[in-house]
Amino acid sequence: MIIDQQEFNVNGLTYSIRSADEKDAGAMSSLRVQMDGETENMDREQGEGVIDSAGFEEIIRLDTVKQRNLFLVAIVKGEIVGYSRCEGVDLKRFSHKVEFGVCIAREFWGYGIGKKLLETSMNWADTNGIEKMTLTVLGTNDKAMELYKRMGFEIEGTLKKDRRHADGQYYDTVVMGRFKS
Question: How many CA atoms lie within 13 A of 174 on its CB side?
């Protein structure tokens, strides 16, 4: 799906959100590696699961034509600083839902970019026949979980000791969902 560009100004920062375009692929590839190294909240460590430009081009191309997928980017001064993605599946039993994921470069945390990407995705889902959005979040990421709860998500379960980080410790993954109101 395609979402037209929208502009926002929060705490003196002007940014825009729009659907990803294949020309964004190179920047997306670099940004993803950068963000994986900035926080423990991501599924990957820096350098793992790298998606190159061609890989992002293909994902963006498919997400543009699939009715149950949405790939958004957040842009500050012409540079991509974050993105979100909703991905549905073609199986009839799961066609009512999409999985949401979001990441923002650390330098741009606190400007509401992630919240705005989520709101835009929720609006898209609600107007396109999506009945449920799901996501997973690191069990220690209280700030994200509180945001998701304020946005109507509820905890559906916890995957105990689901991941082991570089510190050797195990961490839980929290599964959250939101039904169309």
Answer: 18
- The stretch 121-136 carries a mean pLDDT of 95
The stretches of 45-108 forming alpha helices (DSSP H) are: 53-65
Q: Per residue in 41-58, is it b (16+ CB within 10 Å) or e — as a string?
A: ebeeeeeeeeeeeeebbe
Mapping DSSP to helix (H, G, I), strand (E, B) and coil, where does residue 178 land?
strand
Residues 176 and 145 sit within 8 Å (Cβ to Cβ)? yes
Token pair 């929208």: residue: 6
**pLDDT, mean of residues 7-33:** 92
Q: Locate all alpha helices (DSSP H) within 104-158, ordered by sequence.
A: 113-127, 142-150
Residue 44 pLDDT more than 80? no
Interatomic CA distance for residues 76 and 82, integer angstroms: 9
Q: What is the pLDDT of residues 147-169, one digit of tens each?
A: 999 999 999 999 999 999 989 99
Amino acid identity of 18?
R
pTM of this structure: 0.91
* Residue labelled with tokens 């989520």: 118
Chain centre to alpha carbon of residue 158 = 19
Conformational region of residue 121, where left means phi above 0, alpha means psi within -120 to 50, and beta covers everything else: alpha
